[in-house]
């Protein structure tokens, strides 16, 4: 029988000191997508898709803009804010809602990506990413999925990411019936971060593109509902 880490969190999203943890709104889409693009610019998964630094960052910006827009419209974006600046963000999806996001991705970003010449690289990225993520999203074993999680470069190592998880993401999931939350990462430093914050690593795999591959790790955690 599989064992899970069970954690109970207070349900309120609150201010702690002068840092605020809350939902983002659509007016903050650009700021959130820029934060995510900056955090993922050296991500191994993107490096094997596009070698040129300038082209890779252009691709990442377009993808994060599209993804953030869809999440603000259909799912949840949680942020850490200090002095009106977003320092960290998490894109969170409730898998029990069974929303099909693909029509929105096509409607919002399909043609712009095509006109920018980014569609082929985008399809390569989706093929790689979906090879692991689709197993999570389609599995009945998981209730929530953290699609993206990022902290601004200037605040990395200062505990902002851990606080966003413990004071916002986990309470949000807990007060929305809890369940098993999962996520994936491609970097060793992220592995340490998620395990430090209570996640259990349950799968390691190689994502392959032509003659190259990148390591991918999957994590899970059970968060107790505060509705019971």
UniProtKB/TrEMBL annotation:
The keyword RNA-binding does not apply. InterPro entries: Acyl_CoA_acyltransferase, GNAT_dom, Trichothecene_AcTrans. SUPFAM superfamilies: Acyl-CoA N-acyltransferases (Nat). Pfam families: Acetyltransf_7. The keyword ATP-binding does not apply. It comes from the Bacteria. Keywords: Transferase. GO terms for molecular function: acyltransferase activity, transferring groups other than amino-acyl groups. Residues 19-224 form the N-acetyltransferase domain. This is Acetyltransferase (GNAT) domain-containing protein. It comes from Lacicoccus qingdaonensis.
